[in-house]
C-alpha cells in the first residue's frame, strides 16, 4: 500500500528539507500545497529538481489559497486562476488536485456546477479533480452527499479523509455507497479526545491510531470494497509544528505503517 506524506505535517521544515525527510523516513511520494510553489523564486523548477534529487514524486496537490472559494464563487476570474494553478501542478507531475469544501457558503448545486467546470480542465492536463468533504462544514460533511455528487458529476474523484469522515458523523457502513474506483486518495490521521462537535480539522489531528477514531476499521472497510490507491498522512497540528520535524516525519510513518499492516491483515480475514 503506497504511503505518501502531506507536507503540511512537517511545515516547520524548510521546503528542501521536507523532501529530504520524506525520503529518509520511507515515504513513496508527496502531497504538497499549492502555496509551497511560491516559497522560492521559480518554484515549479525548484520543486521539480527536489523531486528528482530525492526520488520523491509529487502525486497530489492541495490547492493554492487563491482557489479556496471554488465551491461557491465560480466566475471567469476563478476559472483563469484554476487554469494557471493546474498548469503549475501538472508541470511538477501531480496526478490529482484536492478540492476541499471549506465553508458553508453556497449550495451543493453551486459545488456541482464548479466541479463540472474544473473536471475537464484537470483532465486535459492528465490530472483528476478530487472532492474532499470537510467534517466540520455541514454543507458537505455527509459522505452520502459526496456520493450523490460523484454520481451527478463525471470525471471527478474523492478524497476520503479519516478525520473528516468521522467528524462528519459518518459510519463505516456509509462507505459501502462509494465506488472504490472513484476514490483518488485516503488521508490518514486521527483526532484528540474532544466531543465530536468541538473538533476542527486544522488543529485537532493526531497520528493515526493515537486518537479516538477507528482508523484501522476505516482502512479495512475500504480494502474490502476494493480500494488499492494511495494513502497520505496529513496532520494539521500546531503542536507537532513545534517539534523536531525528523521525529514527526518518522513517527507519522511508523504510525501509518502499523495501521496499514493491521488493515491488510483484517481485510483478508474471513
Q: Could you please describe the fold and organization of this structure?
A:
By secondary structure, the chain is of the alpha/beta class. Helix content is 39%, strand content 16%. It has an 8-stranded parallel β-barrel with strand order 1-2-3-4-5-6-7-10. It has a two-stranded antiparallel sheet with strand order 8-9. Helix 3 (76-91) crosses helix 4 (108-124) and helix 7 packs across helix 8. The model has no long low-confidence stretch (mean pLDDT 96).
Overall shape: globular
Number of strands: 10
Based on the structure given, which CATH architecture is correct?
Alpha-Beta Barrel
As residue ranges, the low-confidence spans are none
CATH topology: TIM Barrel
On the 0 to 100 scale, the average pLDDT is 96
- CATH homologous superfamily grouping: Divalent-metal-dependent TIM barrel enzymes
* Largest beta-sheet characterization: 8 strands, parallel, barrel
Structural class: alpha/beta
What is the first-to-last residue Cα distance?
20 Å
**Number of domain units:** 1
Q: What is the top-level CATH class?
A: Alpha Beta
Note the run of SSEs as H and E. Answer: EHEHEHEHEHEHEEEHEH
Based on CA atoms alone, the radius of gyration comes out at 17 Å
Count of discrete alpha- or pi-helical segments spanning 4 or more residues:
8
The strand order across the widest sheet is 1-2-3-4-5-6-7-10
Indicate the percent of residues in helices.
25-40%
Amino acid at each position: 500500500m503506497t504511503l505518501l506524506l502531506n507536507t503540511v505535517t512537517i511545515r516547520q521544515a524548510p521546503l528542501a528539507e521536507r523532501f529530504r525527510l520524506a525520503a529518509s523516513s520511507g515515504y513513496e511520494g508527496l502531497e504538497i500545497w499549492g502555496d509551497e510553489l511560491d516559497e522560492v523564486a521559480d518554484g515549479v523548477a525548484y520543486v521539480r529538481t527536489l523531486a528528482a534529487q530525492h526520488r520523491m514524486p509529487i502525486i497530489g496537490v492541495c490547492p493554492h489559497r487563491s482557489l479556496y472559494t471554488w465551491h461557491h464563487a465560480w466566475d471567469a476570474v476563478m476559472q483563469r486562476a484554476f487554469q494557471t494553478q493546474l498548469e503549475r501542478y501538472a508541470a511538477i507531475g501531480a496526478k490529482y488536485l484536492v478540492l476541499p469544501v471549506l465553508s458553508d457558503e453556497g449550495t451543493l448545486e453551486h459545488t456541482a456546477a464548479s466541479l463540472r467546470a474544473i473536471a475537464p480542465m484537470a483532465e486535459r492536463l492528465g490530472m483528476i479533480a478530487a472532492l474532499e468533504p470537510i467534517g466540520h462544514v455541514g454543507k458537505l460533511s455527509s459522505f452520502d452527499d459526496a456520493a450523490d455528487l460523484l454520481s451527478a458529476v463525471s470525471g471527478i474523484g474523492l478524497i476520503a479523509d479519516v478525520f473528516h469522515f468521522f467528524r462528519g458523523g459518518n459510519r463505516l457502513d456509509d462507505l459501502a455507497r462509494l465506488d472504490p474506483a472513484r476514490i483518488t486518495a485516503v488521508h490518514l490521521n486521527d483526532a484528540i479526545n474532544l466531543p465530536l462537535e468541538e473538533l476542527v480539522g486544522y488543529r485537532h489531528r493526531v497520528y493515526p491510531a493515537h486518537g479516538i477514531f477507528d482508523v484501522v476499521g476505516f482502512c479495512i472497510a475500504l480494502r474490502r470494497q476494493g480500494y488499492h490507491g494511495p494513502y497520505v498522512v496529513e496532520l494539521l497540528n500546531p503542536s507537532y509544528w513545534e517539534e523536531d520535524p525528523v521525529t514527526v516525519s518518522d513517527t507519522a510513518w511508523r504510525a501509518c505503517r502499523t495501521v496499514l499492516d493491521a488493515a491488510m491483515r483484517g481485510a483478508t480475514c474471513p
